[in-house]
Q: What sequence folds into this?
């Protein structure tokens, strides 16, 4: 099997990318197979580790015993988060924050969100509702209404700049152009803003956000921060772009495409997957496989009337019983039972209840992760992605 | 296929990936132009959306979509419907027939090459709605079509028919003949039968009938060879996408599926030969810093980046993969005056990413990418197959 990759990672989200980067960073040949772009593109770009309490790592001790965090452990989680930070800095998208302390960022609804690591552009986003700050918005910008914020933070004010385009993606693209940035900076300076902090919806460039952000801060002499917006969310796209480029830089391969068409299995080994493509289906062989397909929204899990299925390997999925057991009117209520659904794994991240030897599972497809309840999404993805990659690698070196 | 649009959950990831949307406010983006508007379209109603032509068919939205919606295909169907019922400009009619433009220009190559850069010709073309922002490609008298007498070695076990495409035929026949020599040196019997345009330019310019005519003719030729045990090889990624996807899909050609299932990208084919241990890889070192711009249609093929995998085997070659930008030219799209702004803005953006890598050479598979980015970046351009030929010391077999 000359063509086989050391590991094939199914799912190009945070968890899959982190697993792939970990392996590629140690000289393994890896391929990431992704059906479309991942859900992290819609996120705020912030890394939530565990919202409860001051210190997210300490808080892990109080999680129920089946939570995937326990498989990684406090030190493992801290190491994985630092690895993530290093990777993102290399890609020019540094993250600030302390893995031992939660922090807050202002949202576009004028509330605060608890998170742990934030892109540098949101470093100063932890405003107090009684603090005064100035919002710079854009004329007729879609899905961003500074009035939401000013109505909740009474000492805040806003002004709007006409970018000539009203969409998040469009304005972010404008900031990639130096001439536009000059005009914008001149306009901001002309406003003679009194407040100590300046908030801007997260449109400060798509790739060069660091340069744009620092220039505005330096020229205005104020502490500037971005407010995460509704999708298309630039910080989410930057996060995905950063991870993807980090993988390509480490010689990892990527297959964007129509998802998994079929799986080839021999005894207790998965040998290859074929990808739905136009024309012929592409076959990708691997010595090991890592499943990082995410939960329901990402398509890793699928629910029927009376069961929950795993969509790629048809692994036995845990779910909290029939619909009448878990049904609840409020889907977003913290602690919806269906959030527990997913794949149960052993200490080496291999799925329980199957014979398959060379498959490892990470990310929100894991059972009992309850991402919305504990607000641990990206942190859990990073921690389990790195941990699954390490046990996968351990399995090889032993062979 | 016709009901794919109902799978859209309006997540906007297609919009975030659309190159046209971010620079042209007149285009509402793939979500609105595709699945959203599709709900209100019917064959009985007139096609009224003028902006439908602004889509360049780069297919980035389809690669990004996690739900299999295929916005670009929905838009393409509407573009052809619009084309059938509305006046098509001179430029559109001309570019639908790039095949004939190429053939005629090649016959008069010395005259065409002399006159095309002249101010007078540019002014005239400009009057007809053709953009002169980037130089026209050079035409060659000795087209690939003139190599039809070539007979590969009958001793080879592997047999392939080379589908070279219009751009290689009239504008870069040396690359085409290089591919032929490369394959011959690897022990593949290559035949180069008479063939016509793949049909993509006609399809992209709203002329479904012409596209079908071309496709039918090619299918007759290629299917005949496939029946005799030949594989079809393409290097132009857009021709490849047309053969594998449009022939059995929107063009609805009877034997289209056969062509689709037996067509290979050149580099994918070489990797296959290596996997089957038909050839050994003895690559000589090349000390060079390469920026590899991934064409949008290579991403859409869902086969990964096979040329990049071959480059990894060449000692000393330092490859930087750039896959975030569309070159903006998109075949004949950027040669239309109405799209000039979009095309040059995107081209400049992509060139910036290339120059940031500071490469010795720019490598890309697609003819349009080569034209646009070679001009915008000023970096010398070559085809991936030229790198392989140099590393494998393939000699030139003449015309």
A:
């Amino acid at each position: 099997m000359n063509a086989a990759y050391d590991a094939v990672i199914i799912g190009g989200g945070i968890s899959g990318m982190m697993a792939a980067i970990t392996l590629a960073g140690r000289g393994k040949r890896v391929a990431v197979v992704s059906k479309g772009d991942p859900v992290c593109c819609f996120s705020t770009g912030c890394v939530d580790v565990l919202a409860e309490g001051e210190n997210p790592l300490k808080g892990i001790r109080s999680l129920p015993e089946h939570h995937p965090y326990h498989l990684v452990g406090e030190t493992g989680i801290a190491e994985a988060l630092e690895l993530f930070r290093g990777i993102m800095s290399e890609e020019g998208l540094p993250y600030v924050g302390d893995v031992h302390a939660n922090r807050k960022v202002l949202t576009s609804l004028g509330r605060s969100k608890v998170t742990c690591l934030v892109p540098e552009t949101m470093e100063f986003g932890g405003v107090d509702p009684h603090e005064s700050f100035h919002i710079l918005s854009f004329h007729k910008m879609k899905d961003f209404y500074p009035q939401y914020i000013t109505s909740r933070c009474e000492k805040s004010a806003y002004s709007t700049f006409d970018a000539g385009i009203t969409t998040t993606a469009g304005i972010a693209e404008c900031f990639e152009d130096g001439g536009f940035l000059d005009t914008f900076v001149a306009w901001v300076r002309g406003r003679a803003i009194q407040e100590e902090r300046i908030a801007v919806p997260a449109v400060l460039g798509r790739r060069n956000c660091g340069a744009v952000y620092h220039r505005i801060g330096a020229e205005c002499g104020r502490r500037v921060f971005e407010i995460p917006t509704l999708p298309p969310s630039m910080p989410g796209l930057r996060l995905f772009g950063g991870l993807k480029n980090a993988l390509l830089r480490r010689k990892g391969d990527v297959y964007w495409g129509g998802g998994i068409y079929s799986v080839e299995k021999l005894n207790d080994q998965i040998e290859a997957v074929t990808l739905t493509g136009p024309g012929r289906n592409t076959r990708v062989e691997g010595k090991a496989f890592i499943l990082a397909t995410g939960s329901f929204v990402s398509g890793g899990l699928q629910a029927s009337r009376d069961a929950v299925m795993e969509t790629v390997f048809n692994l036995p999925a845990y779910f909290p019983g029939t619909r009448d057991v878990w049904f609840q009117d409020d889907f977003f209520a913290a602690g919806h039972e269906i959030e527990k659904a997913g794949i149960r794994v052993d200490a080496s991240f291999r799925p329980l209840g199957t014979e398959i030897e060379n498959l490892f599972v990470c990310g929100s497809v894991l059972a009992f992760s309850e991402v919305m309840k504990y607000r641990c999404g990206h942190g859990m993805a990073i921690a389990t992605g790195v941990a699954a990659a390490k046990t996968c690698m351990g399995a090889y070196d032993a062979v | 296929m016709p009901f794919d649009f109902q799978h859209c959950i309006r997540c906007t990831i297609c919009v975030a990936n659309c190159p046209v949307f971010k620079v042209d406010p007149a285009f509402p983006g793939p979500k609105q132009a595709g699945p959203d508007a599709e709900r209100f379209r019917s064959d009985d109603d007139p096609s009224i959306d003028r902006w439908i032509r602004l889509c360049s068919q780069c297919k980035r939205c389809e690669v990004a979509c996690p739900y299999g919606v295929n916005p670009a295909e929905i838009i393409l169907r509407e573009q052809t419907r619009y084309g059938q019922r509305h006046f098509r400009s001179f430029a559109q009619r001309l570019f639908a027939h790039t095949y004939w433009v190429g053939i005629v220009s090649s016959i008069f190559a010395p005259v065409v090459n002399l006159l095309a850069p002249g101010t007078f010709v540019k002014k005239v073309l400009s009057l007809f709605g053709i953009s002169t922002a980037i130089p026209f490609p050079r035409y060659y008298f000795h087209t690939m079509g003139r190599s039809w007498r070539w007979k590969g070695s009958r001793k080879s076990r592997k047999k392939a028919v080379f589908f070279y495409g219009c751009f290689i035929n009239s504008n870069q026949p040396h690359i085409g003949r290089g591919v032929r020599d490369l394959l011959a040196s690897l022990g593949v019997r290559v035949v180069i039968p008479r063939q016509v345009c793949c049909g993509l330019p006609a399809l992209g310019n709203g002329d479904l009938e012409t596209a079908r005519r071309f496709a039918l003719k090619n299918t007759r030729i290629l299917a005949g060879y496939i029946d005799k045990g030949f594989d079809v090889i393409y290097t132009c990624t857009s021709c490849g996408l047309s053969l594998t996807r449009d022939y059995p899909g929107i063009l609805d050609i009877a034997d289209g599926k056969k062509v689709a299932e037996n067509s290979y990208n050149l580099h994918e084919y070489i990797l296959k030969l290596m996997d089957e241990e038909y050839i050994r890889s003895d690559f000589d070192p090349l000390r060079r810093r390469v920026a590899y711009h991934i064409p949008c249609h290579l991403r859409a093929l869902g086969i990964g980046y096979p040329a990049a995998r071959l480059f990894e085997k060449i000692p000393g070659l330092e490859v930087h993969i750039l896959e975030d930008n569309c070159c903006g030219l998109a075949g004949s799209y950027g040669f239309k005056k109405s799209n000039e702004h979009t095309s040059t803005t995107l081209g400049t953006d992509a060139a910036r990413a290339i120059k940031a890598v500071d490469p010795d050479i720019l490598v890309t598979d697609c003819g349009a990418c080569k034209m646009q980015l070679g001009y915008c970046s000023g970096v010398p351009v070559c085809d991936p197959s030229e790198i392989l030929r140099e590393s494998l010391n393939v000699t030139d077999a003449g015309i």
